[in-house]
Structure formats: structure tokens, C-alpha cells
# Entry
Amino acid sequence: MLIIGIAGGTGSGKTTVVNKIINSLPAGEVAVLPQDSYYKDSSHIPVEERSKINFDEPAAIEWSLLVEHIRQLKEGRDIEMPTYSYLTCTRQEETVTVAPREVVIVEGILVLTDPVLREMMDVKVFVDADADERLIRVIARDCVERGRTPIMVLNRYQDVLKPMHEMYIEPSKRYADLIVPQGGSNVVAIQLLTDYIESRLRRVQ
# Structure
């Protein structure tokens, strides 16, 4: 099993990179564990307080559960991956069954910040993009998917996203084996990455 960590700032193009890797490999060979699924449950916090939660710092993630799930997959066992709602800021009752696969991708803005998780990764990738490009994508995404207004997104960017990016996400770039500039539009870097993955898989088989 090949464990790949894909990090990068919010709106950098991580999901695009992940999808291009999945599409380049045979069907059924890749399992994806999004960091967002492992946010700590906030149902015990009053509703009016939940909007103030900082989702962009490592303390927001239940790393121990994510690490345990990767261990179980490596042992050949299915896991029940949690699901999280951004609308209510709570972990949902529903889970997603994930079976072991040849390639497991752990994707999220902070996945290179946790030392235990990093040690489990065979390949560490950082998807890079200019701050203004990331902001444009975040505005478009949050307004459509998370029910926020452009002003809400801009305020959150200024108050939370930008400082957390500079404090945690950008410094984690130094742990990456491969940096993908220009996000998901960097065809050459993504091809190099998928070629490497395929060569590793052939070596294992």
C-alpha cells in the first residue's frame, strides 16, 4: 500500500490534483481520506458559537482517528470514515465505508503538519498557488457550497485563512517531497507524480 499526502492552501487545487491521479490509475486502486472528514465534532458547542470555530489550525482535526484509520487500512481492514457538515459544523451520524486499496491519498490543508501522520506517508506533496488565485476559488466555492456571502468569505480570509496559512500551512511545505506550482493546472508535475506512483505500484506487485 502506498500512502500519499497531498497538502496545500485552501483553494490551491488539491482536489484537482487528486482527481487527476485517480483518473490516471486503474479503477478501484485509490482510496481518498479527506482531512475535512476528520474535523472534531462541535455539536456540544452552542450554534451561535460554531461560526467562530477555527477550521484552519491543526487543533481542529482529530488526528488520532485519522492515523488509526490509516493503520487499519494498512492491516487490510475496512474503516468507517466520518462525515462532517459545514452547514451545521457537526459530525454526521452517517459514515462512509472505505476498503483498503493499493493507493491511499490523504488530502487536506494541514496533512503535512502532523508528525505522526507524516511518518506514515510514502510520498508527500504540496500543491502551491498564488494567494489571489486561491482567494477567488474560495469565494466561488464557499458561496455555492457553504452558504456564505462574498463579504463573509473575505472577512474570514482576512481574520483566519491568511494568518493560519502563514502560520501552519506554508511552513509545512518544507516537508514535501514534491511541490506542484500553479495548482491543478500543472500538467507536467502531475504527470511526474502519477508516473512515480505507477512505478512504485509495479515494484510492489
Observations:
- The CA atoms of residues 51 and 61 lie 16 Å apart.
- The mean pLDDT is 88.
